[in-house]
Amino acid sequence: MTSWRIGDVTVTKIVELEATGGTRFILPYATRDAALQIPWLAPHFMDEDGRLKMSIHALVIEAPGRRMIVDTCLGNDKQGRAVPGWNNLQGPFLRDLAAAGFARESIDTVMCTHLHVDHVGWNTMRVGDKWVPTFPNARYLMGRAEFDYWRDQRENDELVEVFSDSVRPVFDAGLVDLVETDHRISPEVSFVPTLGHTPGHVSVKISSKGEEALITGDFIHHPCQMAHPEWAASVDYDQSASTKTRHEMFAKLAGQPTLVIGTHFAGPTAGRVVRDGDAYCLVV
């Protein structure tokens, strides 16, 4: 378990899965040879053979009077996932969350940076033959444009399944608030539009007592994209828009004290963006 302090706010990482290698389906340009040309990735984000390290984790935000969670990973018991290893997981995520001091009933807000499979899974849990909200006392915040797009998706069977088992049940339970991409959640926490990966993708900005952090969501999947902002993910909805977002965000963050917390960054997970020639790197 890793935590960071930003003024009066604490962010804690709860890991569901970590993996080394097997990332080419997401980042096709990040071959081993190409990754080895970015030596600062090792050892935290790449092994000695050039295999990328990635993580699927949730981030719990404790702000004054609030307890929130950003993105809820894959979830147990889910079926119809395109990645075979993501089907019918039986992991200890909820136990780990509780052991860290965060009983699921204590969460007051669930923030979805977007509605992909690995970000909404623990929105729900299986009870008998039904999917019920995992966080029964929380409001689930979803981008309005994001929700509308995936609700109307009919062509991809996996996306239909994900919406059916991990999104619609909390909507039908009356727990979803559809919000804009610049929505403010609390005095310290707000959404920032970072479009391209999905139609309504957001990151999460934290500001407290003069300190700032940014939870990325998937406008960046791996720190190698700081060295190569043009390396769009294969799963980006609009690769030109996601590339534009990366260029803009890295330029804005470079040299600033903002702590960047990667939603899929393994190891130390967080650092600060600095310029590295014509590109950027992450200093942990």
What does it look like?
With 284 residues, this protein is α/β, with parallel strands linked by helices. The chain has one domain: 4-Layer Sandwich (Metallo-beta-lactamase, Chain A), CATH 3.60.15. The chain is built from seven helices and 15 strands. The strands form three sheets. Strands 1-2-3-4-5-8-9 form a seven-stranded mixed β-sheet. A six-stranded mixed β-sheet has the order 10-11-12-13-14-15. The protein is globular. The chain starts with a strand and ends with a strand. The mean pLDDT is 97.
Strand order of the largest sheet: 1-2-3-4-5-8-9
What class, by secondary structure content?
alpha/beta
Look at the structure and name the CATH superfamily: Ribonuclease Z/Hydroxyacylglutathione hydrolase-like
End-to-end Cα distance, whole Å, is 17 Å
Q: Radius of gyration in whole Å, from Cα?
A: 18 Å
Order of helix and strand elements from N to C terminus? EEHEEHEHEEEHHEEEEHHEEE
Could you estimate the helical fraction of the residues in percent? 10-25%
Tally of separate domains: 1
Topology diagram in text:
Blueprint lengths: L1 E5 L2 E12 L11 H5 L16 E11 L2 E5 L22 H7 L9 E3 L5 H4 L3 E4 L2 E4 L5 E5 H8 L5 H16 L3 E4 L9 E5 L8 E7 L2 E5 L8 H4 L11 H15 L5 E3 L8 E7 L2 E5 L1
Parallel strand pairs: 4-5, 5-8, 8-9, 12-13
Antiparallel strand pairs: 1-2, 2-3, 3-4, 6-7, 10-11, 11-12, 13-14, 14-15
